[in-house]
Description:
Number of strands: 26
Bound molecules: manganese (II) ion
Structural class: mainly beta
Largest sheet: 7 strands, antiparallel
CATH topology: Jelly Rolls
Helix content: under 10%
CATH architecture: Sandwich
Order of helices and strands: EEEEEEEEEEHEEEEEEEEEEEEEEEEH
CATH superfamily: Jelly Rolls
Distance between the termini: 52 Å
Radius of gyration: 18 Å
Strand content: over 45%
Amino acid sequence: MKKEVLSLHEAIYDPIADLSTWRAMPTRSIGHLDPFLFLNHHGPQKYGPNNNGLPFGPHPHRGFETLTFVLQGDITHKDSVTGESVIKAGGIQWMTAGSGLIHAEVSSDEFKRNGGMEEVIQIWMNLPAKFKMTPPKYTGLQKDSIPAIAFDEGKGVLHLTSGSYQGQQGPVESITNLFTATLELKSGGVFQDDLPAGSQVLLYVVNGQVQVNGASAREHQLVELSTAGTELSITATQDSQLVYCHGIPFEEPIVAHGPFVMNTHDEIRQAIMDYQSGKLGSMAL
Ligand code: MN
């Protein structure tokens, strides 16, 4: 049985400092797609020489995971637990905030000096109660560590971060068994998948235009699909790039407050106290 397209949600333009930002979730149209909480699309944006780079200085997180796809440019990730790494175009950063840490997502010195194009997608994936307080962990992977799986006679490529596709395994082991990937489709290219029963899909059109199980979707749209049904077919009507992830919903209460996502208000209060008393670590820039 095919998954049904329930709705198309427009990303809203909501710049952060001088950074172009399209937020696809949460918006007034869609709060979350359990277990996915958030999707921001930054750029594409051209930075000139001697720029200030990305505006994300030190800030805390607890209770979920972030996955950042670096489509163009670079990101220097620093945190209070694992140190520092620069990830370039085609790479990803996967951070399990778990019990909490402080991190910064900024541009490399080289990028700030020379400028260039920057385009980044960040998604937040929830953690269930049993993993909210798991130890923090960060994985940064460059493009050459991420399988690029061609399909439809080369008219499509799936860049697999976690989960499996056509017998290949993504390099990140998701503790909640999430499938996470980006898709590139040339016009006319067809991607087909048969998902585990009950899967929630996070499907976002970064650029281009596609038909998703017969419904048309374009740049800056989030496609909401039914959890019922297993079959998904995406046909590009223009050259397109998409974020394509799926997972089984946790069906737990979600209490989100800024950078903390927990199950209860008491746990949010605790997170704020722990942050203020330095239990999430500290970081000097
Ligand atoms: Mn962050």
